[in-house]
Amino acid sequence: MLRWILGGREAPGSVEKSPVLCIGEEQPKNCFTELQVLKGHFDIVRFLVQIDDFRCASAGDDGLILVWNIETGERLQELRGHSQQITAITTFTCKNGPTLHTSLITASSDRSLSLWNPDTGNRVQTISDLQSSVKDPAVCLSQCLLVLERLCVWVSGGEELCAWNKDFQLQCQKQNHSDTGITALIELPKNCIAAAMDKEIVIYRLTVSIDSSLSMAEIRCLSDHQDQIRALINVNDRLFASGSHAGELILWDAIDWNVFAYEHILWEESQACTQSEIRLAAPKPSEMSIQHLTTNGKHVLAAVGSGLYVYSVLTKTVVAYRKVAHDSNVLHTMMLSDSELMSCSEDGSVRMWEIQDLPLTAEPASPGFFGMWTFGRPNKQTGPPSKKVIDVPNTRTLELTGDLIGHSGAVQMFVSFGENGLVTCSADHLLILWKNGERQSRLRSLALFQKLEENGGL
Predict the structure, then answer these.
(1) Which tens digit of pLDDT belongs to each residue from 196-230?
(2) How far is residue 309's CA from residue 323's CA, in Å, rounded to a whole number?
(3) Which of 180, 184, 160, 178 is nearest to 170 (CA)?
(4) Which of 326, 302, 186, 184 is nearest to 254 (CA)?
């Protein structure tokens, strides 16, 4: 137990003895003091999607889709049918008579698309042997899915851009012009969608004719990025954002598709450095790459290499940062509030952060209590002294407030269920359900008192 309190890991055998483990109370702002390990996958778990308030689905390289009850940790359904890894998964909610029903759509590198009923575990529809005109076999792994619920259609991207109706019937398709395929899709106003292809974002408009047939037309190509686009998200009703492998963050107007703001997140060399030192200390591509973007509408949180940057939409500046937030690349992020955020990394950690004022000295912000411990990993929180972030007035720092230690492999992503908990998935083939320990204790006490009352024990 002491190893969990200090952040170390128990041997696998001892972890499996109890399905629920306490982490400790040395992190006062970290409410996730209870965890439950969920087993069922046999390879890397890459995707999580929320089905409703109490269920989520997981998928990954073993081709399985598992449906979980996040209140109890029970595995509800096991969806089998794909013979290779899952490359994308999303939910599709549409009217089924007077009620709404949520299905799951999956894409796989076995060149098939499937529609699943998460209530029964049945595969309702499937499309197999999708043809390809692209020579690069890796492109099929870039499959992405987008649901347009207002039109009751969904779009698949990869080697081609295809629009399908709820019955899995192909409505229209467009061949992309990039060898890398379509890597991300988002919905824009006026029946438009944006598709990321290598360094470009292509805008398409969907048109529904009088006879209810659907057509798709390319209407704009945005070529302002200098390197491959790694992330594409909606910011609010009027803006969307994209991030590139070279650290470029661009905010776009969602109506006229013009550039609203541009930020190149790079580290400026000290003026005392010579030109040869600048070349030697140049950042590696992985240190510059924007791996993930998320937003709350006011700020955009960018995962750049192993660092985190908070960009203000209002002021068009980076307002808070932590150059080295993890020991390895950050893979997924989330803004919990205007001042709190969360990230996970290839280093196996899930961390909670709070935006705070920088200390008065010019030194990097102190890691506080967490600097006293290594949390089971070497401390790599110091960067090259010759580099500094470009000074911006009122720039703040990100202070570590919680470190969720449980996975032994890269944490791919997480999904928050609010007060019901947090679910993470990892390369260690596991899901972990993180719970608010105090809330769980109250719920157990309440259930015990109710049981005693029913049995006449009170």
Answers:
(1) 999 999 999 999 888 888 999 999 999 999 999 99
(2) 8
(3) 160
(4) 186
Backbone φ, ψ for residue 149 (5° rounding): -65, -30
| Per-residue model confidence as pLDDT tens digits over 224-257 | 999 999 999 999 999 999 999 999 999 999 999 9
With beta carbons less than 8 A apart as the criterion, state whether 173 and 161 touch: yes
Coil, strand or helix: which one is 141?
A: helix
Among candidate residues 322, 329, 293, the one with its CA nearest the CA of residue 196? 293
* 123-158 burial: b if 16+ Cβ within 10 Å, else e: beeebeebeeebeeeebbbbbbbbbbeebebbbbbb
Closest CA to 264 of 281, 277, 247, 252: 247
pTM equals: 0.81
CB 307 within 8 A of CB 324: yes
| Helix, coil or strand: residue 17 | coil
44 class by beta-carbon count within 10 Å (0-12 exposed, 13-18 middle, 19+ buried): middle
Helix residue ranges per DSSP H, 121-226: none
**53-98 tens-digit pLDDT:** 999 999 999 999 999 999 999 999 999 999 999 999 999 988 777 7
- Tens of pLDDT, residue by residue over 267-298, are 543 333 333 332 334 456 567 899 999 999 99
What phi and psi values does residue 183 have, to the nearest 5 degrees? Answer: -105, -15
For residue 421, give both structure tokens: 């908990």
Closest to 102 (Cα-Cα) out of 154, 63, 64, 61 = 154
Of 316, 282, 284, which is closest to residue 299 (Cα–Cα)?
A: 316
